[in-house]
Design goal:
Shape: globular
Helix content: 25-40%
Radius of gyration: 21 Å
CATH topology of the largest domain: Aspartate Aminotransferase, domain 2
CATH architecture of the largest domain: 3-Layer(aba) Sandwich
Number of strands: 14
Structural class: alpha/beta
Number of helices: 12
Strand content: 5-15%
Strand order of the largest sheet: 1-9-8-5-4-2-3
Order of helices and strands: HHHEHEHEEHEEEEEHEEHHEEHHEH
C-alpha cells in the first residue's frame, strides 16, 4: 500500500481546551449512525428478548457470513471468549499454553485462572507478533496449545504458526481482539483473522474496531462439534436445560449489545479503511524524524490499526509522553511492563528470565490517537506536538 497522503502543516490551529482530542472518539461515530442504533436498541426493549433471542442469532449469523466462518458464538467479553475456548478444548490443569509476552494480561490470565501454565515467549521487533524462534526447544509433553495475538490490528504469521502447531500437535487459539476485519494473505492461507486456527476469539469492548456499548465478545470456529461444545461451556455446561453434563460458566452476549454490533458491522470495513488513511497521514508526517519507527505492515496481512503505535528509539519515550500530556494530547503505552515482570505472573519464570524484544518494546512504544473519525486537522495538532518535541531536542 502506498502512503501518499500529504499532511504537512507547521501551524495547526485547534483549541484543545474547548474541544479535547480523543484517544478514541466514540461520540462522533455514534452521532453518524444514531438513528439506526437507537431504533435497534428500542426494538430489543420492545421485544423484551434481553438474553439470547433473535437479535443475538441475527448478529452471530451476519458476523459468520462476514468472516466466512461456519460458527460464531457470542459471549460476555473477550476474556471470557479465551477462557471458554481453552475449556472447550479440554486442556487439563498443569498443561502448558504458549503465549506472547508482549500483550495485555488477559491472554495469560485465563491460562493461569484455569490452573494451566502460561509459557511466555518473545515477539518480533517489526510487527510485534509472536516469535517462533527457539520455541522447538521449550516444547514439553505438557504443551497443548499456542495463542497468537494479532496485536494492534494485523495478523500474526499464521502459516508459520499453523505449521509449528501441526508439527507439535498443538491447538491454535487466535486472540483477535485487536484485529477484527483484517485479512491474512499468505501463500497457502487466505482468510479473515480469527478464522484460521482451531478457535478464534474477539472482544467487543467499546474502543475496539467493532465495539459495542458495554462488554461483549465472540468465539469463532469452523468445527461444528467444537462449536457445540463452546456453546455448552458458555451456558453452564448445559445442552438441555437443567442437564449439566460438564462444568461450564455463564457468559452470554446480551441482545442490546448484539443489536448495536449488528448495525456497526455494516460499517466495519469503512471504519477500518478510515483508520488506515489516518495511519498513512501519520506516517507521512513522521517520515523525516530520525528517532521514530512508524508501524510496519507485514506482507502477509493487511492492517486495521486498532492502535497506531510508534517506537521511540533514542530513549526519550517517557519524555515525549510528558510533552504530549502537558499539551493535552492523549496517548497510550501498550504495554509498559513485560508480563513476566508482573507480580501475578513472576511465579511462572525464574529470576533470570529475559525476553530482549519484549523488554525493548516496553521501553520504546507509544500509541497516538486512532479511530474511525480522526480528521486531518486534528492529526495536524497531534503531529505538530510530536515533531515539536523532537525539534526541541535537536
Amino acid at each position: 500500500m502506498s502512503n501518499t497522503i500529504n499532511t504537512k502543516d507547521s501551524n495547526p490551529m485547534i483549541d484543545t481546551t474547548s474541544r479535547p482530542i480523543q484517544m478514541v472518539d466514540l461520540k462522533s461515530q455514534y452521532q453518524d449512525i444514531k438513528a439506526e442504533i437507537d431504533a435497534e436498541i428500542q426494538s430489543v426493549i420492545d421485544s423484551c428478548y434481553f438474553i439470547k433471542g433473535p437479535k443475538v442469532t441475527q448478529f452471530e449469523n451476519n458476523l459468520a457470513q462476514y468472516l466466512e466462518v461456519k460458527n460464531v458464538i457470542g459471549c460476555g467479553n473477550g476474556t471470557d471468549a479465551l477462557q471458554i475456548a481453552v475449556m472447550a478444548l479440554g486442556i487439563q490443569p498443569g498443561d502448558e499454553i504458549i503465549v506472547p509476552c508482549f500483550t495485555y494480561a488477559a491472554t495469560a490470565e485465563i491460562i493461569a485462572l484455569l490452573n494451566l501454565k502460561p509459557i511466555m515467549v518473545d515477539v518480533t521487533l517489526d510487527t510485534f507478533e509472536i516469535s517462533l524462534e527457539g520455541l522447538d526447544k521449550i516444547i514439553t509433553e505438557r504443551t497443548k496449545a499456542i495463542i497468537p495475538v494479532h496485536l494492534f490490528g494485523q495478523c500474526s504469521n499464521m502459516e508459520d504458526v499453523m505449521a509449528f502447531a501441526e508439527k507439535h500437535n498443538l491447538f491454535v487459539i487466535e486472540d483477535n481482539a485487536q484485529a477484527i476485519g483484517s485479512s491474512y494473505n499468505g501463500k497457502s492461507i487466505q482468510a479473515k483473522s480469527g478464522t484460521i486456527g482451531h478457535i478464534g476469539c474477539t472482544s467487543f469492548f467499546p474502543s475496539k474496531n467493532l465495539g459495542c456499548y458495554g462488554d461483549g465478545g465472540a468465539i469463532f470456529t469452523n468445527d461444528d462439534a467444537l462449536a457445540e461444545r463452546i456453546r455448552q461451556v458458555g451456558n453452564h455446561g448445559e445442552k438441555i436445560k437443567y442437564h449439566h453434563d460438564i462444568i461450564g460458566c455463564n457468559s452470554r452476549l446480551d441482545a442490546i449489545q448484539a443489536a448495536v454490533l449488528d448495525v456497526k458491522l455494516k460499517y466495519l470495513d469503512s471504519y477500518n479503511n478510515a483508520r488506515r488513511k489516518a495511519a498513512y497521514r501519520y506516517n507521512d508526517s513522521f517520515e523525516s524524524l530520525d528517532h521514530i519507527i512508524t508501524p510496519i505492515e507485514a506482507d502477509y496481512s493487511d492492517h486495521v490499526y486498532h492502535q497506531y503505535t510508534l517506537r521511540i528509539t533514542d530513549g526519550s519515550r517517557d519524555e515525549l509522553a510528558d510533552h504530549l500530556r502537558n499539551n493535552n494530547i492523549p496517548f497510550g503505552i501498550y504495554y509498559p511492563i513485560p508480563l513476566y515482570k508482573q507480580k501475578a505472573y513472576s511465579q511462572y519464570v525464574n529470576e533470570n528470565y529475559f525476553l530482549p524484544n519484549t523488554e525493548l518494546l516496553c521501553k520504546e512504544v507509544i500509541s497516538l490517537p486512532m479511530h474511525s473519525h480522526l480528521d486531518e486537522k486534528t492529526q495536524q495538532v497531534i503531529t505538530h506536538h510530536v515533531i515539536d518535541f523532537f525539534n526541541g531536542r535537536s
